[in-house]
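Backbones bend. Our protein:
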Amino acid sequence: MHEFMIVGVFVLFVGLLATGMSVPFAILLPGVVYLWLEGGIGGLHGLGLASWGSMDSYTLTSIPLFVLMADILQGSGLGLRVYGGLSRLVRRVPGGLLQTNIAGCAVFAAVSGSSVATAASIGKVALPELKARQYDARLATGSLAAGGTLGILIPPSIAMIVYATFTETSVAKLFMAGVIPGIVLTLMFMAYLAFAAITRPEVAPRDSQTLTRDSVLRALVDIVPFMLLILGIMGAIYTGVATPTEAAAAGCIFALVLARWFGELSWREFLACLKRSTLVTSNILFITYAAFIFSYAMAVAGVGEEITAFIISLNLNKLEFFLALFILFTALGALVESLGMIVITVPLLYPLLASYGIDPVWFGIVVVVFIEMGQITPPIGINLFVIQSISRGKLADVVMGTIPFHLIMFVLLGMLILWPDLALWLPGRVSGG
């Protein structure tokens, strides 16, 4: 009877997702139903403690601050200035503005922490220019959708903060672990775009304008304040001067200064930023809360221990385990959005890491790369719809444009498996490990 109830709960969960129910409700409802079936009204008594424990987390307090900081920078128009500065610097590189898409996403990712915010911010600025200069529609939209995924790999990353909350892993170490893979993935994206532009010149018209000293200086004026903010935040975290939450709070203050000095932040826009940030943060924290309740229900049921025992009984080697993860996350990526993937899988998979000798920091980066792929995997890949809604073109063009970037992400996953130090070298170096 116990096993039938657990299977029924998972069937209910999948069914709710399939019917299109919002992810937090699809996660929360089956957990509450199981607790009620298992213990009646008395079984629900633990919800109070689980609810308090889920939100009583210092790590989570950095999320609204990072969200607000990114919204201030976006609302003040600084994203437009950064994109313009980058476009002047890379206009002569094969790929032209396509390279600016990736570079702009990488820079904005370093403050937004959000894939959707990155794709939307750069997409709104870039797509009108790309259309006016007759860039290939598939490559233009695909590069923006894929470039937006850098928002959850290049720190600070909201996905990493949520992962750290469930695994009690150091947020600072996760942030450091994402730096080198994020840079490598950015360079791989840009190398592909350069290759595409060289082999098919018609997809990216070359810019004939000369890069002068004045244009370089103007570009640096647009970019340098933004980069100083990023380096200040990450430097404070990496050196231990500030926690992620303290660094995010300082980042909000400096973002306000930059927005007033270099941008166009009015009081009306500032209030709008507060409202948008509240809505985004509420959605993230509600998903996290629902996941904690679901995890509590599964802990009561002993699902984690049973799954762990089952997988260990299969005697999978590490490579086979990674292959199973690949199948799992590929399937989930087509059905569940990014935070949903973390909160559904990580509490169940985390106990398995020790038996395979897998470093939880390294595993966090692998999970984030899988999530990146999910952001551009139909039918749920949210970046596809964000870019399609901005471009007002065909969704099929956006999907086809992201296929090469999918393949590049597979290459990065292979590199992480073959060379774990790609993610672990920097955290060990900075922490003295």
Notes: The chain has a mean pLDDT of 78. The chain has one domain: 59-431. The chain is about 75% helix and 0% strand. Residues 192 and 370 are 20 Å apart (CA to CA).
